[in-house]
Structures are given as structure tokens and as C-alpha cells.
Amino acid sequence: MSYYGGFDRRHISRMMRTSSTLYRAGSKHLLKDGVLLSEERQLRSFCRFMLAEKQTRFRYLRQLTLIMDRPSQAVAKKFVYVLKRMAHLESLHLSADDEFLNGHPDLCDAISGLASLRRLHADDAGKLACDMLKRSCSKLVSLYLNFGMVPSFPGDRYGEFFYNTLDPEDLPDYHPVSVLAAFAPTLEELIVEYEGNVRLPHQPHAVYPRLRKLHLKDDYPFLRPYIDAFPNLTHITLHTSHCELSVPYEDHEEVFWEIRSRNEGDQLVNGSWQHLEEYRGPVLELYLLGLTCPVPHLYFPRIADQDLEFLPDVVDSARPVELRMNIRGDPFGDTEDELPAVLRRPGCSFLRKLVLRVEIPPEYEESDIQISMDNLLPSLQTLALHHFELTLEPNRLLNPTPRRGRPRLTLPDGSLEPPITPAPLFPVEHSLEEFNPLDYAQRVFEAVPFMKEALVVVGGPRAAARRVTRLERGEGEATVATNHTEIMDYAPWASD
User: Fold this and answer.
1) Residue 75 has what pLDDT?
2) Residue 122's closest CA among 142, 161, 95?
3) Which domain of life is it from (predicted)?
4) DSSP 18
5) Contact 394, 492 (CB under 8 A)
6) What is the pairing mode between strands 387-394 and 353-360?
7) Predicted confidence (pLDDT) at residue 190 exceeds the cutoff of 80
């Protein structure tokens, strides 16, 4: 019987003080959703709580998050004692910087000895964390590992990238593939983040047969270590610092080409992944990978103008079946890098599902949506699409109407001050207003004979309701139309 259904932890804690029965029963409910500790006083209280009741509470603790500065020696010693008794802990999230792990000489051993652990999230890892992971007896299934900044001197607020602090001869021992070898038989999902423009060596010390999902954030990725170590990979996500650069890509084009050529040439000689199903991340990053294997499902969360030049090579290499793109701008012109021409390339001939979300920023205030979508239609006609989605949304900054930021004031005569006069619509907003989603969905169905479903969503302008049309091909080749409107979920004056 549960006495605590629907109560939050504060209420449960109060109820536990009212009777011995509730006191014993409450522990399970306090611990079942995990524990978050961010201050030393919380850690001290947690240790006392776990050691009470003849240490019977450990069986209820499955998740622990520990994001805090280095505790005092006395508290760290008590925590090590508690850690060694967490025989049922499955998920651990902690700050893994050297300063924290140095809080007690046995802390690393206590963490590496958690045999029940299946999911680990380690932030700001350095040498101590790497050595701890190498000694671990956990059978991890999922791991997030972030290599942090290493202080150059006591009190250094910035530090250096971890890999930049290592001697070249030590790099092989600290490649993620080498550091995580203890988890090779069990690891299924890996997220690794590091920066520093380091050419890591490519001699993996282990093969991870069960690893399917890899999320990599680094600089200038060289794929060979990961291809050899993760032969059965199905999903890859990549981010590098280049997708966040404020300088134009053309300043780095030669370097980009060299990285792609190195990865592509290596795979042509030594092979690539055989089971890769999905890539998620920026267009440039996929270009850098130089993949020679098909990637059936591509998802680009943001495509800006400077990404367009990489699209042709990317789709020809990947030969996607499904392509999802969040586009910022209006790349529907007639140049070879813009979307209509890209969709006519050989690599897009395999497409069966195309999902486009187009965000229209202020710099495209003069665009004409109808002309842009008319330019897209002939390219759709060349594809054997079964499913098509198009969303057109104006950026919130398109509306220059100032925000008052307060309620309207009452004037001396008792009336309210007049409302702010909305700024006139830009040409692109007028074209959005006139664009008919049902008409366009019907034209798509007429142009693409294999089409089974089309969804067209038009947002704005400004506070106008979002117009939604869905067409489905029913029995006897008939089409069924569904039309409705949705209220916009943001104020038109809000910024990104």
C-alpha cells in the first residue's frame, strides 16, 4: 500500500515525521525519482539519511546527480563510505573535474567500483576521470563524457582544452576509444564532447560491438578510430566549433576540403560503416566526415546561406531516403547550390520523405513566398516522394512593432492610453498571408504521382493563426483534405 501517491518530497518528508510506519515507508518514495545534490550541506544531510534505518535505504536509490564544488575532507570521506554501499545505483551524473575527484583519495575507486551502474554522465573530465573510467567495473550502457578545461595555474578561470595539455606520446592512451575500453562489451550509446583542434591518433584498443548511437562534439574529426571501434554504428550526431563560427566559411574552405578528403580517402581504402541509418547535425559537419556509405535518414537542424554550398556533395554521398531540414532564409532560387537544384541531383533520387521547415528572417523581408514555392514544385516532380511536409514560419523579429512592456496606463480623463500602432507588413508577410496551403498541397499531389501524404503549414503573419492542411491519398486514388487553424504560441514581438 502506498501512503504517498501524488505528494511532493517536501510533503513526504513532513509526513515521515508523524509516525514510525510513515517514516519507514517514506524513504522509498523520497528516493525513487533520484536525488540531486548541489551543496555540501545537502551532501552531508544525504549521507546521514542513507546511513539511517540500518542502511536499508540504499536499495531504493537508482539515480544520483552530484553537481557541486569540492566538499570538505570530512564530508568527502563520509560520501565515499556511502558510495561504496550503493549496490543498486543505475544512473550517476557528476562533475568529474580533477579538483572534485581529488576531494578524497578513495573517491575515484568508489565510483569505479559501482558495479550496478548502467548510465553515467561525467562533466569536465580530466586525467583523473579518464583513469577512473579505465578501472571501472561498471557495465555501462549509456555514457556522456565531456572533457573540460584544465586550469593552467591555481585560480585560473579559463584554462586550456584537455587534449592540448597532454604530451603527444600520451594522446593514444587518452583517446575516447582507449579510455572507455572497459565498457566495450556493453556500451550502446556514447556522447563525447571535446575541443582543441587535436589530431587524435587512430589506433583503437577495443571494439564496441553493441554501440549503436554516437554523438561527437570535437574539432576536425578523423573518423577511422570510430569506424574501427564502433563497427555496428547506426546513428551518428556530430557538432564542431565551426557550426558556431561568426566568421564566414570561406576563410576555412581549404581546411574543410582537406579534412573531407582525408576522411573520404581513408574510407575508400579501409572501408566505412555498413549499418549506418541516421545522421543528425549541421550540413558542414557531414561534409567534413566524407562518408562513403549510404545514410538513409538525414536531419539538418539548421541550414543557413553559407551551408548551401556543401549540400550537393552531402546528398550525393548520403543518398538519403528521408531528408529533414530546418532552413533559415529563402534558398529557393535557380543557382546550383539552392534547394530546387539540389533536389534534382542523383543523390536525391532515392528520397521518399521530405520535411522542410522554413524560417523567414528579417533580411528576407522582400521575398515572395509564392514565387519561391513555385520554384520548388518542378524539383518535387522529379522525385518519387511518398510523404512531404512544408512549414513556413516568419521569424519573430520580422515584426518591428515596439513592445510596451507594461499594462496600458489610465489617462487623467479616465481613459486608457492608446494602443501601440502595429508596424505595416513587409512584402514577405503579405505573400505569406496570400499563400494558400490547401492549393499548394493539391498541386504537390498532382505533380508527384506516388505521393501518399502532404502536410503544409503556414504561420503568420505575426499573430495570425497558423493554417494547416493535410492531404492523404485514400482508396481509389482519392485525396482527403483536412484543414484547421492553430493559434500561434508566442507573442509576435518576442525575440529569438
Assistant:
1) 94
2) 95
3) Eukaryota
4) T
5) no
6) parallel
7) yes
Q: Which helix (H) or strand (E) holds 64?
A: strand 63-66
Contact 449, 387 (CB under 8 A): no
Beta strands in 164-270 (DSSP E): 189-193, 213-217, 235-239
- The string of DSSP letters for 314-366 reads HHHHH--SEEEEEEES---SSSTTSHHHHHTSGGGGG--EEEEEEEE-GGGTT
How many CB atoms are located within 10 Å of the residue 289 CB? Answer: 27
Cis check for the bond before 461: say yes or no (omega within 30 of 0).
yes
User: What is the average per-residue pLDDT within 83-99?
Assistant: 93
Residue 485: in which H helix or E strand, if any? strand 479-486
The dihedrals phi and psi of 231, each to the nearest 5 degrees, come to -65, -20
Q: Give the pLDDT confidence of 33-86 residue by residue, as tens digits.
A: 889 999 999 999 999 989 988 888 899 999 999 998 889 999 999 999 999 999
Nearest to 373 by CA among 431, 301, 323: 431
Can you list the pairs that 442-450 forms with residues at least 24 positions away whose Cβ atoms lie under 8 Å? 442/471, 442/479, 442/481, 443/377, 444/377, 444/380, 444/388, 444/471, 445/471, 445/473, 445/479, 447/377, 447/378, 447/380, 447/381, 448/380, 448/381, 448/383, 448/384, 448/385, 448/388, 450/384, 450/385, 450/386
- Quickly tell me which residue has 500561434 as its cell: 488
Residue 344 is placed in which grid cell?
534534382
Asked if 298 contacts 322 with a C-beta cutoff of 8 angstroms, the reply is: yes
pTM (two decimals): 0.86
SS3 215: strand
Q: Give long-range contacts, CB 8 A cutoff, 24+ apart: 147-154.
A: 147/192, 147/193, 147/194, 148/97, 148/123, 148/124, 149/124, 150/98, 150/126
Contact of 288 with 261, CB cutoff 8 Å: no
Q: Are 363 and 337 in contact, with CB atoms under 8 Å apart? A: no
**Looking up cell 492549393, which residue turns up?**
439
The model's pLDDT over 338-367, given as tens digits with 9 standing for 90+, comes to 999 999 999 999 999 999 999 999 999 999
Sign of CA dihedral 96, 101, 103, 108: positive
pLDDT at 301 over 90: yes
Q: What is the pLDDT of residues 363-416, one digit of tens each?
A: 999 999 999 999 999 999 999 999 999 999 998 877 778 777 777 888 888 888
